Amino acid sequence: MTDKSITSAVIIGAGIFGVSTGVQLARRGIAVTILNDGPPANGASGRSLSWLNSARMRSEPYHRLRMAGIDRYRTLSTRFPDADWLRFEGGLTWDADDKDNEIDTAYRHEVSLGYDARHLAADDVATVTPGLDARAITPQGAIFNPGEGWVDLPILIDLLLKEFAALGGMLVTDRGKARIMVEGGRAVGAETATGGRFLADAVVLATGPAVPKMAADAGQTIGDGTPIALLVQTKPVTHPLRAVLNTPRVAVRPAPGGAFSLDADWAADEGVRVREDGGYEIDDAVVDALLAEASRVMEGNPRFEIAAIGVGGKPIPGDGEPVVGALRAVPGAYVVFSHSGATLGLILGELLAHEIATGGEHPMLATFRPERFLSR
């Protein structure tokens, strides 16, 4: 049910959170404009590993939220059962062979939550999922989570924008950076760098790694733990791997058309330098090393070629948990800022739109409010 006092909204950011929220508001009959400084998915959504999961350890509210997120993707997959951009073929993870190996602890935790998990020795992995080089798996074994999957976010965003347009939503791109307009202490719309003004009853900040600074400019503190991320997309190869891999030195995700997406924290730390002008320099040797790590963990040790490289901030709040809801410092303004943008992309758009449209607070977001940073 919609609170009729909210008839219009402006969303800054055309990544998965902004577009998902925009579609949900448009479905409720609200007039929505989405502003983006470039083409849709030109930020973090375009360089995300996009692994759909709730693996390992996290708070119970965060786990429940992620499980709801996966549920929405399963519903979506029934509409597109043959899609090559949304697949549920499991996830496999193992840790390094050292004192920090937590595979057994993680497995026990997942089982305690009812999360589908199997703790397997290296020689048993091939019985549940293909495409692995078992020699890469450490003696402590691996966890296979059969309910996990992956999504190609740019394809999903394009799909959602088609519905958004059909519902009368307006997408405005390439007008430069936008900011919240505040008059009389309240958000009244957004203004682009080129001078365009878009008035609305509600304004949503969904600009990924730029959220903390933009919120600070509006008077709201949000803790920021955003690192630099590096995602390498390969050219297509013929290979049987179907699961998402998270290994000590590389994460590997199948992609449409037989390609693979690769990332690793060490590669971003060692291989990316931020220039004074804000651009990035990438160390080719580190990228080559990342490709070699992916080859090493995959059956047949395939040779990869680079199709594209994405570099930029990976949105992570200061305490690691999502930041969603109204900005208390600026009535009429809302924010959505989180890691795991793929897993949470559909559910957070749905829940935030519910709050904007009804003026209420959804209980699943109770621990994720922006104001929690004010007491720190």
TrEMBL record:
Every FAD dependent oxidoreductase domain range: 9-354
Gene3D superfamilies: D-Amino Acid Oxidase, subunit A, domain 2, FAD/NAD(P)-binding domain
Annotated SUPFAM superfamilies: FAD/NAD(P)-binding domain (SSF51905)
Short name of one Pfam family: DAO
Entry-linked InterPro entries: FAD-dep_OxRdtase, FAD/NAD-bd_sf
Keywords annotated in UniProt: Oxidoreductase
UniProt keyword Signal, yes or no: no
Keyword Oxidoreductase part of the UniProt annotation: yes
Domain of life: Bacteria
Name the UniProt record assigns to this protein: FAD-binding oxidoreductase
Annotated organism of origin: Mycoplana rhizolycopersici
Taxonomic classification: Bacteria, Pseudomonadati, Pseudomonadota, Alphaproteobacteria, Hyphomicrobiales
